[in-house]
């Protein structure tokens, strides 16, 4: 089913203003401010422990901020009339009543929110769970639980979707389906905010990026601007006098460094210019290749200093509380 186009286009539907939240001495979200517009998919990106889930939970009225505000349609979630009809949230995939069937879980949600029973079968079909609708959700795989969570978020056909790591556990077909669904809803004027720690996934799904690290805002930018600003072109050249060429490149304002395979890695100059410089100084070369630093590399570089958990750091994720635990 395609999303019905919306007439009203408020400038910002989601507003996070100076939001701050600590758990004991640990500050999960630190004076964070950003706003999300309708009509595009906004990716909420950050490494593990950056504060994405905490922010989404506060937006969905689960927990109180220490300071600041998290608003939907200008109001805290709890003040919205018929919230399920306006905002669809996915926090933790395994949060359903495990003994209930997928159908009955959704039916219970529909009944408590005055949503017609027919919508239950409709969303089960949309997420591909029709065949297992009568099975108890306790036995669902992570991907199936994720699909059920997405079905619950879609149940009220809300204008806003807030999804925490929705592609977790989905198979490639599921990832593709979800990506198209989110793009379709955004194109119809809905507001879509989804979190991820994977830039590559966001690169093919999101139009806009809000990047956080250690609870603080690092970037609020369109994907196009992020790419233009951070993805530098890299040239690799295998030449006969690498040290001389390196000096010439530096004089010309480019950066060049030797690679273990004997090539020079050049940034700050396009491949055509590198070749021209080498030829102008009679430096012969056997190989020349141009590439670009990936978005993932740019994201890792940006968040490197703000990453709480890195391999070998000795720090582990929060003890006891699983991913997305409330
Ligand atoms: N219920 C909680 N009790 C204690 N600390 C918590 C709790 N929830 C989150 N934290 C801490 O807050 C910080 C931010 O966690 P959060 O889950 O919001 O990050 P995240 O960006 O969603 O990370 P991930 O991608 O790993 O899910 C982390 O240091 C985490 O340990």
From TrEMBL:
<keyword id="KW-0547">Nucleotide-binding</keyword>
<dbReference type="InterPro" id="IPR027417">
    <property type="entry name" value="P-loop_NTPase"/>
</dbReference>
<dbReference type="InterPro" id="IPR003593">
    <property type="entry name" value="AAA+_ATPase"/>
</dbReference>
<dbReference type="InterPro" id="IPR003439">
    <property type="entry name" value="ABC_transporter-like_ATP-bd"/>
</dbReference>
<keyword id="KW-0813">Transport</keyword>
<comment type="similarity">
    <text>Belongs to the ABC transporter superfamily.</text>
</comment>
<dbReference type="InterPro" id="IPR017871">
    <property type="entry name" value="ABC_transporter-like_CS"/>
</dbReference>
<protein>
    <submittedName>
        <fullName>ATP-binding cassette domain-containing protein</fullName>
    </submittedName>
</protein>
<feature type="domain" description="ABC transporter">
    <location>
        <begin position="14"/>
        <end position="239"/>
    </location>
</feature>
<dbReference type="GO" id="GO:0005524">
    <property type="term" value="F:ATP binding"/>
</dbReference>
<keyword id="KW-0067">ATP-binding</keyword>
<dbReference type="Pfam" id="PF00005">
    <property type="entry name" value="ABC_tran"/>
</dbReference>
